[in-house]
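Hello again, I could really use a second opinion on something today. I've been puzzling over a protein and I'd love to understand its fold better. I'm sending you its amino acid sequence along with the backbone structure tokens. It would help a lot if you went through both lines with me. I've dropped the whole record in just underneath, so have a look.
***
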Amino acid sequence: MARGVGPGTSAYPEGMARSHLTLAALATAAVADLDVTTASPHGSTTGGDFDSAVLDGRGGERLVVRVPRTQKAEGQQSADLVALRALSAGVRGRLPFAVPQYRGQAPIGRTRGIVYDFVPGTRLRLASVTSGSGLPTALGRGVAAVHQLPTSFVTDAGLTSHTPFEAMRSSASLVDRAASTKLLPAALLERWEAAIQDSVLWQFQPTVVNGSLDASSVLVDGDVVSGVLGWHDLQVGDPARDLAWLLGLPSAGAVDAAFDAYETARGTSDHQLRHRATLYRELDLAKWLLHGTATKNTEVVDDAVGMMTDLVDTLQSERRGRIGAGSTSALDLDGVEELLETTERRHS
């Protein structure tokens, strides 16, 4: 039995979800003159960080309303709202896909519900992206379009900017923290430290990046990218961050097609792009380990250690080269990708 949160009650109810009717009523308070004709649940109704519903208005509008269920989700939603407001009509016009448009907000308990225009499309499933389709090319071009946006709108909004040195230092800090757990395999520590210390690897031009882009962010319609959600990490930084997830496409041909489309669209001369993307993707294991230790979740810790051990075995058995300048075999990580896709599923 779902009920909304009222004044004086917890903003983050445990084990219950707000009904789509409650969310529809909230949306009418958030958007002036909104007359909701139909409402239906959106996304997971049994878990996740948000309660959400899709609404149809009498004026023909289609909207989404979301209310955070956790403090982390509330922070993410607030950051997302700042980013979406920074994405002006002129900036959005440069993108080949839709981005959510803010429509209004209303308080509920100690948090707030946010209403956005609905972005049509189906959530991308990595397993469905084949090298014979046009989707890898569309994905590569879509990421390139983000990276070609002018950096000024990000800095004008007061959002984060990272230099190559800061990107390197952030990765080094992550590795140091993982090493401090005494659970990081020595072979991975050596591999990651060698990459971080490779000055050539970190020679890149910072661009606008989504910052948290992955398959769950992307909406598709056939072989077309129809929308991109989740802009809470919008910043100026390393373009490889937005490309790391593409290494999880199900075949080397699909990966190559996506990266080729990206590089053609941008005309980039960043020869270390895939190497840094590989490093970021492997460092997801370090993040998973640190999440487990921070939350004292032994199951997560054991899972992370197991995947890191498997990664070491894969690298050694296939004689993979180091990550960085001069490496010729660190790009096609088919076996590694299976492990890292598992990490993504555990995060979802």
User: Anything to note?
Assistant: Residues 122-347 form a domain with the Aminoglycoside 3'-phosphotransferase; Chain: A, domain 2 fold (CATH 3.90.1200.10). The longest helix spans residues 273-294.
